[in-house]
Specification:
The protein has helices spanning 15-21, 31-45, 54-57, 63-78, 92-95, 98-106, 132-142, 146-151, 159-166, 176-179, 198-207; strands at residues 2-4, 51-53, 83-85, 110-112. By secondary structure, the protein is mainly α. This is Heterokaryon incompatibility domain-containing protein.
Length: 208
């Protein structure tokens, strides 16, 4: 399966939206639905049968499914085939969102695309993690060492170093500061949106 790493831009198609029409190809014509369809087309073009997007592959109306997904996310990225990031996403703002840290570190193969779904910098190689030019641009933008991005494993860095990486990333809600790090720290804390900043305390307590 191919994972989709992207910035939410508004009313993205949800699990319920796709369930009603039975297929992403049957969704109404709209820019965000087209983004999802383009991702599926690119996935097919690479010869893969399954495409995964957090917007519509997680039933967020179910707390148990959402919690299981959040706790499994790092492994899902690590076990996936190529990860695709569409649009103008080399900007430092998107790359410093909390959830993108685990996406960048866990995956083995990644492709960056421009807003027209063309390979970033016209690089048609098999893995943009092997492109020194793209990785150097990414390193300059998000201030994470190139080697950390390209060769990271869960046991590479000490706790302090992982926390330092995480401190450079931004969250939209307080809880994501902790929940986005569950996989990186091999944590078993149970996500519970509503606990606010206490979530980070629970994560640090378990780490200690």
């Amino acid at each position: 399966y191919v994972m989709f790493s992207h910035a939410w831009q508004g009313k993205e198609p949800l699990f319920q939206d796709v369930s009603i029409v039975k297929s992403v190809w049957n969704l109404p014509k709209a820019p965000l639905n087209e983004k999802l369809r383009n991702f599926c087309k690119e996935t097919q073009g690479l010869g893969h049968k399954w495409a995964w997007s957090d917007t519509c592959c997680i039933d967020k109306a179910s707390n148990s499914i959402l919690n299981q997904s959040l706790m499994s996310m790092y492994k899902w990225y690590a076990d996936s085939a190529p990860v695709k990031t569409p649009g103008d996403l080399m900007c430092s703002f998107w790359m410093t969102r909390a959830w993108t840290l685990q996406e960048l570190l866990a995956l083995k193969v990644i492709y960056f695309y421009d807003s027209e779904w063309k390979p970033y910098l016209n690089d048609t190689g098999k893995n943009h993690k092997e492109s020194l030019e793209i990785m150097q641009e990414l390193t300059n933008a998000i201030k994470i060492p190139l080697k950390t991005i390209t060769t990271f494993t869960l046991d590479d860095l000490k706790v302090r170093d992982k926390l330092r990486l995480a401190s450079t990333h931004h969250v939209m809600v307080d809880e994501d500061a902790a929940y986005s790090l569950i996989g990186i720290f091999k944590s078993n804390i149970r996500p519970h949106y509503g606990e606010g900043a206490d979530s980070l305390g629970h994560l640090l307590e378990e780490i200690v």
